[in-house]
Amino acid sequence: MSTVALSNWSGSRTIAGALVEPTSLADAAEAVARSRHVRATGSRHSFNDVTDSAETLISLRHLAYRHPRLTATSGEDVPPPAVEPELDEATGRVRVSSSTRYADLALYLHDRGRSLPNFASLPHISVAGSLATATHGSGVGNPILAAQLSAVELIDADGGTRLLEDEELDGARVSLGALGLVTSMALETVSAFEVAQTVYGPVPFDAVVEGFEEISRLGYSVSCFTTLREDVFESVWVKRAGTELDAPWPSEVAGTPAMDEPFHPIPGVDPANATAQLGEAGPSWDRLPHFRADHMPSAGEEIQCEYLVPRQHAAEALRALRGLAEPLAGLVQVAEVRSVAADTAWLSPMHRQDCVAFHFTLVRDTARVAAVLPAVDAAFAPYDGRPHWGKVTAADPARVRALYPRREDFLELAARLDPDGKFRNDFVRRWVG
Ligand SMILES: Cc1cc2nc3c(=O)[nH]c(=O)nc-3n(C[C@H](O)[C@H](O)[C@H](O)COP(=O)(O)OP(=O)(O)OC[C@H]3O[C@@H](n4cnc5c(N)ncnc54)[C@H](O)[C@@H]3O)c2cc1C
Questions:
Q1: 256 C-alpha vs ligand 1 centroid, how far in Å?
Q2: CA-closest residue to ligand 1 atom 19
Q3: In what order do the strands lie in the sheet with 235-241?
């Protein structure tokens, strides 16, 4: 057990708990059984107290799969033994150890002619941690990454092994870490496919508000970025896939031509960190994330905040975003607007409704960010905005709890698997119950 303080990826906060890093599932089960309070940590890319533990904090990083091409960039001193995923060629399902990063899984699948249908903006995050917080990418037809889940294996509060599938699956897709220590997950895959991306900008803010539906359907995945410093979206990223690649690219988006040089989502940051643009086709895993697996994602020194707003309120919420230019001046590095399709997970912010995601990369200044979070909440709360489970917010927990119609079902499932609440922390109690 380690007493060294563990900070999150961006260094914006310290994760509470005494770190245990088992090298076998038997050791992990033993650590769970002997603790009164347990939480798991993935790749530590969350920004709030979702991971905190009052006692034991377990990382399964030694049981992750590392693709040989990425071991040098994994950030690990010693690569763990390769815990190979298992691909079932007949069903297309892949079983993968929970702390494996999307980057490693994507390469494993690529070698076998398969892919996941979508990715978040970065592939550096662990599978279990991403699913637990309803991590998503973009695309009118693309739901959260947890929509691919077909089975979960976990260590329960007694240290026993459980398999969750079928009717329990919608409870387990987005678990906030409250159901147990997830050891492996089975995900549905698709045939490998190519994607190409072209970046347009700057596009006038009004044109995005008025043309949002049309713009978000220009490709398989579309992201609009604004720094809110001027009345524009500095860049609109259009990612096309499959048969979309047969059609010519639009010559312009809302009157703005495509850029003729690579761009980083945060203006001024080296575009070498971003995935290839200029319409050059490549594998899905190397285009759908904005950030390259072997480079630093985003800004690094940052705090993130995000609201998911039901799609029917897109235009009002976009205007509310513009209204944040003044309160967020000097604090916002970039804001991103994406589309996320409805899914069935009980704790998904997109539960049975298509949403628009309003994301903010803010400077890493905890006090100043905390001071403006009420303004961000006031902008999106009137449109039933749900905060992202892995990011900071000043939302009213009672308002948020009321937005999840299957919340009680989740609590029942959690109570069945973990009657004494060993895996529940303050975060789960505050936001779910
Ligand atoms: C640069 C950057 C870009 C991002 N881009 C996106 C994006 O495009 N879309 C988006 O939606 N989000 C995005 N995020 C947020 C990120 O996807 C989430 O915070 C996600 O949870 C990170 O995964 P992780 O492995 O780091 O999880 P962690 O932060 O380590 O953990 C998150 C939760 O998962 C639980 N957990 C982890 N492992 C296990 C396990 N084995 N068993 C049970 N519970 C477990 C933890 O207890 C915790 O509750 C971004 C974050 C950063 C820093």
A1: 35
A2: 46
A3: 282-283, 194-200, 235-241, 221-226, 332-340, 355-363, 302-310, 386-387
Question: CA 368 to CA 280: how far, in whole Å?
Answer: 40
Q: What is the pLDDT of residues 365-399, one digit of tens each?
A: 999 999 999 999 999 999 999 999 999 999 999 99
Q: Which domains does the chain have, with CATH numbers?
A: 194-400 (3.30.70.2520)
Spatial separation of the C-alpha atoms in residues 311 and 386, rounded to whole Å: 12
Q: What is the dihedral of CA 400, 315, 263, 101, to 10 degrees?
A: 30
pLDDT (0 to 100) of residue 143: 98
Helix, strand, coil percentages for the chain (3-state, nearest 5)? 30, 25, 45
- Ligand 1 centroid to Cα of residue 126, in Å, is 7
Query: Is 123's C-beta closer than 6 angstroms to any atom of ligand 1?
Result: no
Residue 265 CB–ligand 1 contact under 6 Å: no
Over residues 396-422, the pLDDT tens digits come to 999 999 999 999 999 999 999 999 999
Quick check: CB of 221 below 6 Å from ligand 1? no
98 in contact with ligand 1, CB cutoff 6 A: yes
